[in-house]
């Protein structure tokens, strides 16, 4: 009976989690749509109030509206006119105390992580952590810069070591390039390996040879 119960859980658990995440996303979008309706209702004339409230009862309308809004924002932000307005907005927010610190920090991180030209989380590597002889998977986030780089002689990499099974928390390290081993696995495969605590093992690339730590870049 125990074996049958475990087999049943293994069948339904992935589906249940998938449905839960999708429902959470739909609820989040409906919440954003509800906030937009409330803002419109606050400035709309009284004759339009009943029509606006009826929109709340349309199932799935929030998902469609938020999707279209994000798409339209992306189109606006990628043309010359939209980029000019975004620069003005950033300049305005940058003059507001406290808000500018939070906004600029979040914007820098999001631009680095999600920009197609960024290099963060584009490569999975193998590093020794938390001690020599203990190995874990990490992600290259770039190279040290500014004052930090001035105190680190040689070639260093910035590394993010995620925790298991929640990879959204972790540790930021700066390691010599020679102590980092490149991996052929994709970032998605590495995340699955981490989240599953090593249960979901990525398949090795055909004909892939074991890699040595990255060699240091010769000076000059």
How would you characterize this protein structure?
Helices cover 50% and strands 13% of the residues. The protein is an alpha+beta fold and 220 residues long. The chain folds into two domains: 2-85, no CATH class; 124-195, SH3 type barrels (Roll). It has a five-stranded antiparallel beta sheet with strand order 4-3-2-1-5, covered by helices on one side. A hairpin with a 7-residue loop joins β3 and β4. α1 (2-43) crosses α3 (61-77). The radius of gyration is 24 Å and the shape is flat. The protein starts with a helix and ends in a 25-residue tail after the last helix.
Keywords:
7 helices, five-stranded antiparallel beta sheet, 50% helix, disordered C terminus, alpha+beta, 220 residues, SH3 type barrels, flat
